[in-house]
Amino acid sequence: MEMEKSVSGNQNLFELTENSLADIRYWTWSELLDALKQCQNLIPVASSSGVIDKYLDSLIGRVASSCETSPCPSTSSADSSGFRLSCDSKSTESFKNSIFRATWWFEDLAAFEPFLIDILAKQMVSRNLDHGILSKFLFYYQKSRFASAKIMDEKCKTMETVIEMLYLLDLSCISFKTLFGMLRITLNLKISKCSRNKLESMIGSLLDQATLDNLLLPSPVGSSYLYDVNLVLRLLKSFISKGACCVPLTRLKKVASLIDLYIAEVAPDPCLKPYKFLALVKSLPESARDSYDAIYHATVMYFEVHSGLCEEEKMKVCSGLKYEKLSTEGCNHLAQNKKFPTKSAGQALITQQVRLKSLLQETNQASPYINSPCSFVETENTGKEDQQIVLYAGKLDLSTENEKLKVHLQGMQCRVLELEKVCRKMQNQMAKMLKSRVSSHNNARSLPRLCS
């Protein structure tokens, strides 16, 4: 339009615009908002000319200064924010001021389109605006836009923008509860795979803050299983993405306790495949669990519901168990549980025997402190060559300073005798069980011959 040239000594339009932008620091808050709203319709032109950058720079500067100093910016319009609190009130003034400084601009900026919020948030991050405040604004923006959105595409675009901006922030400043709330919302939205992966990555990194209710999300439409096990596996993968050795042991054990509860909830699902059950058990390293009793009980429930599994499938499921981390009661119960494969029951018995021998060795190492050494007597058991170890405690003659050692040793000796009885009982039961299975197998093989 050739308006960059002066006419009759008057300033041209370009010069007038430059002068106006030079005085932007004198603009009121409402004037800045109106200018940005108009730029939304001219975003390519405004961006290329640098106009929108000057508007945003001024706006962000005022937000930042108001959060750091005065809660009542003089350029702000009286009705521009529903979050504002009365500056004249004397009651709980410091509390009101802190809330006001953090949130007074939320409602005004929530009226902008997602692409403008994207630019705005990135500039706020570059200006080192508090990440906690910025994350709260993004959550508020998502909620506000969803309330006014008329079509699904608007919601998807808003959610993707919010996720992208949250991904730039420090995770420790983001509310985990709100992140999981967003995850539940996205179950009904077709957001991009990239945005979904980023949201799951953020949640996975904070998985030790989750509860069982957070994880019990329904499976996607069209799936046969009850809960979204694949999602939980992805969250676990994100949690240990840098390696289990990089995660503090306290956090690792907290997540393991949570996953044990989750496995117990999904185990009764008749549609849960063995490899999915095993994937949940093995998703965390062995060091994350001090005891595998919870996993054993969940496996018991799984076998009760999935009674049609073959021995091979059952053994694969049992490969997730760490027998050495089962309690004595757990090993004893497993050895007698007919729903478990024979090899698994045998492994439980072997574990018990190893524990017994280890305990006997510890007791034997303590014997030099005893004046009358313990003796071991070998006896035959029903004509077999098995040796039965019987611990005989001689008369103890210890000095006064070794009285604590005497009490400890006597208790250990009693425990050894108890374990010996339990082990002998389990061996007899195991022998009977094996004999019964072999007999049943032989009868089944001889039946066709008799019939012929």
From TrEMBL:
Gene Ontology biological process terms from the UniProt entry: protein ubiquitination
UniProt-listed Pfam families: NPH3 (PF03000)
Coiled-coil residues: 409-436
Ranges of residues in domain NPH3: 103-355
PROSITE patterns from the UniProt entry: NPH3
Family, as annotated: Belongs to the NPH3 family.
Protein name per UniProt: BTB/POZ domain-containing protein At3g22104 isoform X2
